[in-house]
Specification:
- The structure is a single chain.
- The protein has 335 residues and is α/β, with parallel strands linked by helices.
- It has two domains: 14-23 and 183-322, no CATH class; 46-174.
- 27% of the residues lie in helices and 20% in strands.
- The chain has helices at 30-44, 65-78, 97-106, 111-114, 139-143, 167-174, 185-188, 232-236, 240-249, 265-274, 305-308; strands spanning 14-20, 52-57, 82-87, 124-130, 133-138, 146-150, 190-191, 199-200, 209-210, 229-231, 260-262, 287-291, 294-301, 314-316, 321-322.
- Strands 1, 12, 13, 14 and 15 form a five-stranded antiparallel β-sheet that branches.
- The radius of gyration is 23 Å and the shape is elongated.
- The chain starts with 13 loop residues before the first strand and ends in a 13-residue tail after the last strand.
- The relative contact order is 0.16.
Length: 335
């Protein structure tokens, strides 16, 4: 840890609170959509009575997930199958079966809710080879008579292409017991820390500072290698075992390198500003977000305002106030 002496007259930027108002599609009637999709599937694939069907559920949050899983379980039972739940989340949960069951439990995926037992293992089998490279699959999924994956579709965090995050990734990574990054490069841009990561030219960010690890990370600090500055508070919360398992599984030890570590948030912000090229407070661009998943509310420095002036999806919530810190050096303004 490094301690930086920040003088009382150090110039921190004024910050303006803004609110993004993205166009959100209308709400979906989950039950009717699921029923419609199920009928399409039922006509194409017959399920022999007594078949053991594994339902793969991931660690990423999906709205109404318990309701979706329960619907699938009930329809499989009506077809005469014997469904059971398995984690499809790579090496999340510390790379242990117990840790992955705990993640599913937090999301409400327990037998008493969804109506099917939850089973987990980190054992894998080789299900085939592609150009000599073994393709691994979760043993429980491999032993099942059928497989249903409940997934979401989004941009991948490490590469771009015709296939990114979705059912294919869940098959190859989620059921192959591998993992991915904790900070979304689609938000922070730049070159990923892994040697095989894609380069995202926008946004162009010079310094990244992260204040803390959330409780939900359970000490998993994958993505730490993308940071320039961190706090002692964050570093002390890192579960080195969990993070190392993720880094090795993802073939990316670069992603968990510990950055320059400061004693307080005030010192960390000052260190980030001191390592920039020459700037004035009028042209300095600073953005404070809660995390890379929650971008509806944020604070920006006044240097960002000219670029936001014509954005109809953004409204100014405050006129601006200096970036301030409490007596312990923590940022006073919360998002």
């Amino acid at each position: 840890m490094f301690t930086l002496d920040v003088s009382d007259d150090f110039a921190f930027p004024d910050m303006v609170r803004i609110q993004m108002q993205p166009q959100i599609p209308p709400a979906v009637d989950i039950r009717s959509v699921l029923a419609s999709e199920w009928e399409c599937c039922r006509e194409k694939c017959a399920i022999p009575p007594g078949d053991r069907i594994a339902i793969g559920v991931g660690s990423r949050k999906i709205p109404d997930l318990p309701q979706i899983v329960t619907f699938v379980v009930n329809r499989l039972k009506q077809a005469g199958a014997e469904p059971f739940i398995i984690p499809a989340m790579g090496s999340h949960g510390g790379g242990t079966a117990q840790g992955q069951i705990a993640i599913l439990t937090k999301q409400g995926i327990v037998e008493s809710v969804v109506g099917a037992p939850v089973r987990a293992t980190m054992d894998v089998v080789v299900s085939g080879r592609v150009e000599g490279i073994p393709v691994y699959m979760d043993r429980l999924a491999h032993e099942a008579d059928g497989l249903v994956l409940i997934n979401r579709v989004k941009p991948h965090t490490d590469f771009t292409g015709p296939v990114e995050s979705g059912v294919i990734k869940m098959l190859a990574i989620g059921l192959g017991n591998r993992t991915g990054a904790g900070l979304d490069p689609n938000v922070i841009g730049g070159k990923g820390t892994c040697v095989w990561s894609d380069d995202r030219p926008v946004p162009e960010i010079t310094r990244i500072f992260v204040r803390d690890l959330s409780v939900a990370t359970q000490g998993n600090a994958m993505g730490l290698g993308r940071l320039d500055v961190a706090t002692e508070k964050l570093v002390n919360k890192i579960d080195m075992q969990t993070t190392a398992v993720n880094a090795i599984t993802a073939c990316c030890p670069e992603d968990c390198k510990i950055p320059l570590t400061l004693a307080t948030e005030k010192q960390a912000v000052a260190a980030a500003l001191l390592t920039l090229w020459a700037y004035t407070l009028n042209d300095l661009k600073v953005v404070h977000i809660r995390n890379t998943r929650d971008l509806a509310r944020m604070m920006v420095s006044k240097g960002c305002l000219p670029e936001l002036a014509d954005r109809k999806d953004i409204c100014m919530v405050s006129t601006g106030s200096p970036m301030t810190f409490d007596r312990t050096g923590h940022l006073a303004a919360a998002l």
